[in-house]
Amino acid sequence: MICQLYIDWLISGLIKYHDTLKYLALFNLSIILLFTSCVGQNTSTQTTITQANLYQRIQRTAPLYSPVPKPGSRDWLATHKEPGQTFKQYQQTTKPDPEEQKKVFYIQPIGKFNPKQQEILQLTAKYLSIYYQLEVKFLPNIPTSAIPAKAQRKNKYTKQNQILTTYLLYDLLKKNFPKDAALILGLTSEDLYPAASWNFVFGQASLRDKVGVWSMSRFGDPTIKANYNLCLLRTFKTATHETGHMLNIHHCIAYHCNMGGSNHLVELDKKPVWFCPECTTKVCWRKKISPTKRTQELAQFWRKLGFKEYRDFYKRAQKLINK
Question: Domain 95-247, CATH 3.40.390.10 — does that match?
Fold first, then answer.
């Protein structure tokens, strides 16, 4: 209303003083200031509306998701009692960093990777950049020989070499956290263990320190054509899951969701690649990103990789969000 009255006043002034160049200059300057002011007001209002409606918009996709399946005797929820974490609880315990979205998501390679593993690593970086809407960069590779003997062991069952995750998280990644980093995620081809009493772990992350690590060791040999897609999906799932923990997202029990825990490969393979509405809202709220843009880019990513099922899922999700 104020904008409209101001414009009417200026136009009436022009009619009265149309031959006054000085007033014309004033009119041009006023229009520029008015346009800037009005656009700023509209943008601010739009942002407020988007943030206010974020949860409701993403909840429209709920019919696309499945409930948590009944756990088998060896599954995660059969051996771990999890309280879950709602979006409201997440908001109460998480303080977003306003500068975080301007920073870099670093991937720290650790050890040797064959050419197909390196290819998967590059695709994972692209996937993470879309999933969390952050610029992703690689840090220089750290050889396994640089890991002290006290942080390594031989698995008594598989005889594989393993690296202690707590050393990687707190003595390596946390202590070498770049100033422009939002997050650092370590990736290794070596097997991992979190404590002497554990057989192995796919990955581990700190909810507080924004560091995480995951291993491709148990994901299959991607040089074998029949194993490539399986290894790719396992890597994507674990990378996005551990990154979720780095953003203070707890294990999910609301839906069959990639933020659910996994005790073994069969359980990991059954999990979807996507986050449920609760966990997706946490990401979009924390990172202040558009769920429409994110969903559209994920659909395009899966289309390029040739995964029609996942492309179609995100296209349906996008329609529901924009409904």
Answer: yes
